[in-house]
Amino acid sequence: MAKHDPDLSALFHALSDPTRRAMLARLAAGPLTVTELAAPTGLRLPTVLKHLGVLEAAGLIASAKDGRIRTCAFVPGALAPARDWMEAQRSLWEARLDRLEAYVMQLMKEGGHDQ
What we know:
alpha+beta, three-stranded antiparallel β-sheet, 60% helix, 12% strand, WH-like_DNA-bd_sf, ArsR-like_HTH
């Protein structure tokens, strides 16, 4: 696994902002227009568009324009790289903790200490 994966970095960057996470949560229920996404944020449209640009660059959303209306949709499969990375980290740390536990148990056994 590469030490620096730009796609994974873009994904975590996109997920790092609570406004963007809230937008994704709303989009999980179905596609929404930019205006619908902007309404509860209290942010100005240019700021909302910047957030949507970050989400789209990370592959988390797709947008389509019909006339003057832009609709955004969540792309749940885009979360797979983050899930895979976190699963690899979980496995790595579980293995490390298992080895630590075995080492501590061995030390206790050698020292004549029982649990």
